[in-house]
Specification:
This protein folds into two domains: 231 residues, 3-Layer(aba) Sandwich (D-Maltodextrin-Binding Protein, domain 2); 195 residues, Periplasmic binding protein-like II (D-Maltodextrin-Binding Protein, domain 2, 3-Layer(aba) Sandwich), CATH 3.40.190. It is an alpha/beta fold. Helix 2 packs across helix 15. InterPro entries: Bact_solute-bd_prot1, SBP.
Length: 516
């Protein structure tokens, strides 16, 4: 149903005329606006959508108790969330009534987050939100700070939950039947159904393997979803047409499988002998998607949890090695930087015609040198079945237990701020600025967001294409030090590309000693 909604929205998008300019380091030029085309390639049960993007200016865009730290820990009576509560009864001064929110988005998004803060303060004027951009250090800061709310990647979330024992079970608030200032505390069933299911289910305890070690059980919730992104396929349509990768009508074809993609790369290389036809930004995402499409998971539910070295997995990744040997592909590590620059280099100058990169980074592909196309990722055809499983990623909203006297009231008010951040309108505003995908289906029905998608900028087109893969989205279950294993998987891919036996590389990545 949700996929049909997205496709219906795309079908009604208007074509817009857009002013444009080049990179900040180049002389400003005037460009013609190109026609936006949606091309569908059908391969039995497979469908891929490629959208041609006009060259355009991108806008600037069950609560866990804390570990006691004193000999006389604070004893706080829990709030009864089934009652009718009022903030008038909440005691404390300004500092007591200030929620501390850590994020990693930078100053660019401060004005947008201010909108959620203002919505919160309009409802609760005696409370305030204080947020801080913590950069790469904010994960460790949570361990010894009085933090109420943070945006975290799931792998980091697990490690912090394991070490701190401070992560709050959000279900206590999401399912609450009481009211606060005459407004419902919890979500209704309709509210819950509005979330994209994969995003919403990501925060459940059963997706954090071993979370029972820090007080969670299946069905509990460690987090709520924030905006998300996925990899998409960027294409130089101009060069592909010149190389002859077209259908009978002369339109550039869209590869729907990895086999078709590498066939296209061979055609490109034959026409542009010095090109590197395919660039891939994330080696780990490449491995995870290829493995998932062929029936292999990153993890399993039983300790030691690692599963990416299962029997047969190595053969899937070893198929990449001859393509690398023949200069058909480069990765971020082997190229030495983001491969968006390889696409912008153009194949006649040794660059690429295809790049697999994040949908949120589409503005980096802005160029006047060719017509850009954006498509869904290729999939795998195996035993007559087509699988286009696509990893999505993004931050999660995580509540923490503090050591303050009014910690129970703070948790409730933190939940109220989470609801402001999950608001469909705020999700739309944040998504339009960031190029990320909103968590709510209803956001796509907001006129301003629909207009954003119809503008067909680089960023909005990538977001639209990413949203078309929602039924193919998956996430990896996480566990203690999962991020280290993913880094080792990345290194294993590089070793396989350079000729190492795949089983040896994956076994080493899966069994190397992990720090406690």
């Amino acid at each position: 149903m949700r996929k049909r909604l997205f496709e219906g929205l795309v079908a009604t998008l208007a074509i817009a005329s857009l002013a444009s300019c080049g990179d900040a380091t180049t002389t400003t030029k005037t460009k013609e606006t190109t026609t936006i085309e949606t091309t569908t390639e059908t391969k039995e049960t497979t469908t891929a959508t490629t959208t041609e993007v006009p060259t355009t200016t991108m806008p600037e865009t069950t609560t866990v108790a804390p570990t006691p730290t004193t000999t006389n820990p604070v004893v706080v009576e829990p709030l009864d969330l089934s009652l009718d509560l009022s903030t008038d009864s909440f005691k404390g001064d300004k500092d007591d009534k200030t929620i501390h929110f850590y994020h990693n988005y930078g100053d660019r998004y401060t004005e947008i987050i201010d909108q959620a803060k203002e919505a919160f303060k309009e409802k609760y004027p005696s409370w305030d939100i204080e947020y801080e951009f913590k950069g790469d250090s904010f994960v460790s800061d949570i361990m010894d700070s009085k933090v109420d709310l943070a945006l975290l990647y799931r792998d980091d979330l697990f490690n912090i939950a394991y070490d701190s024992k401070r992560v709050v079970n959000i279900n206590d608030y999401l399912n609450a039947k009481g009211t606060l200032n005459n407004n419902p505390i919890g979500y209704s069933s309709e509210d819950i159904l509005d979330f994209v299911p994969a995003y919403f289910n990501e925060g459940l305890a059963e997706n954090f393997l071993g979370s029972d070690e820090f007080g969670f059980k299946d069905g509990d919730r460690l987090s709520m979803p924030f905006v998300k992104s996925s990899d998409v396929l960027f294409m130089n349509l101009t060069a592909l047409k010149e190389a002859g990768y077209v259908d009978e009508s002369g339109k550039v074809k869209t590869p729907t499988t990895w086999d078709e993609l590498f066939e296209a790369c061979s055609i490109v290389q034959n026409y542009y002998p010095y090109s590197t036809p395919l660039g891939i930004d994330s080696e780990s995402n490449l491995a995870l998607n290829l493995l998932k499409q062929n029936g292999f998971d990153f993890s399993k539910d039983e300790a030691p949890y690692v599963a990416f070295n299962a029997t047969g997995a190595a053969e899937v990744l070893e198929k990449l090695q001859p393509y690398y040997d023949n200069y058909l592909l480069a990765t971020m590590s082997t190229y030495g930087g983001y491969t968006s620059s390889l696409l912008k280099k153009t194949p006649e100058k040794g660059g690429a015609c295809f790049v697999i990169g994040s949908s949120s980074g589409a503005s980096y592909y802005e160029t006047e040198d060719f017509t850009l196309g954006i498509s869904t990722l290729p999939g795998t055809m195996k035993n007559g079945n087509y699988n286009r499983s696509t990893l999505y990623t993004g931050y999660e909203l995580v509540m923490f237990q503090t050591e303050l006297q009014n910690s129970e009231e703070r948790k409730l008010m933190t939940w109220e701020f989470i609801k402001c951040l999950e608001d469909s309108g705020f999700q739309g505003t944040f998504s339009m600025e960031s190029g990320l995908n909103p968590t709510k289906v209803s956001t796509y029905l907001i006129p301003e967001y629909a207009q954003y998608l119809s503008s067909m900028t680089y960023q909005s087109t990538a977001a639209m294409i990413s949203s078309l893969m929602v039924d193919d989205f998956y996430f990896t279950k996480t566990f203690k030090n999962a991020s280290i294993y993913k880094a080792q998987l990345k290194e294993a891919v590089i070793h396989i590309l350079n000729g190492e036996n795949g089983k040896d590389a994956l076994d080493r990545a899966a069994t190397i000693e992990i720090p406690v």
